[in-house]
Amino acid sequence: MTVAFWCVLIAILLPFVCTGIAKFSGGQFGARQNHDPRAFLANLDGFAKRAHSAQMNSFEAFPAFAAAVIIADICHNAQQVTMDVLAVLFITSRLLYIICYLADWAMLRSLVWFVGLGLVVSLFCVSV
C-alpha cells in the first residue's frame, strides 16, 4: 500500500480524534449523553465546540481528498513520490487546521484550510 493510501486511512480517522476531544475535554460526556450524542455535541461551547466543528470539517474535507488520491493513482500520470508528498502535506495541513481550530486561531485556520484545498487540487492536477 502506498503512503498516499495510508494518508487516506489517516484522514478517515482524524474526525474521530476530534470527536473524542469534543466529547471528553469538558468531562461532561457519560453514558446518559451517549443516548443522543448528536444533541450533546450540538450543545457544546468553547473548546469542546471548536473540536466538534473541526470534526465536522474533517468529515467534509475527506471525500475530495480521497477522490483526488484515487484519481491520481488510477491515472498513472503522476509519480508515486509526488502523490505521496502531496498526501502527507494534506494530512499535515489537516493536523495544523485542527490545532488552529482548537486554539481559536481563526485567520490562521482559514489560511491552512486553503492550503489543504490547494493540495487536493494539486493531486488532481498531477493526474493530468
Automatic annotation (TrEMBL):
Localization annotation: Membrane
Gene3D superfamilies: Membrane associated eicosanoid/glutathione metabolism-like domain
InterPro entries, A to Z: MAPEG-like_dom_sf, Membr-assoc_MAPEG
Entry keyword set: Membrane, Transmembrane, Transmembrane helix
Record-annotated membrane-spanning stretches: 85-104, 110-127
GO cellular component, as recorded: membrane
PANTHER family on file: BLR7753 PROTEIN (PTHR35371:SF1), INNER MEMBRANE PROTEIN (PTHR35371)
Identification of the protein by name: MAPEG family protein
Lineage: Bacteria, Pseudomonadati, Pseudomonadota, Gammaproteobacteria, Pseudomonadales
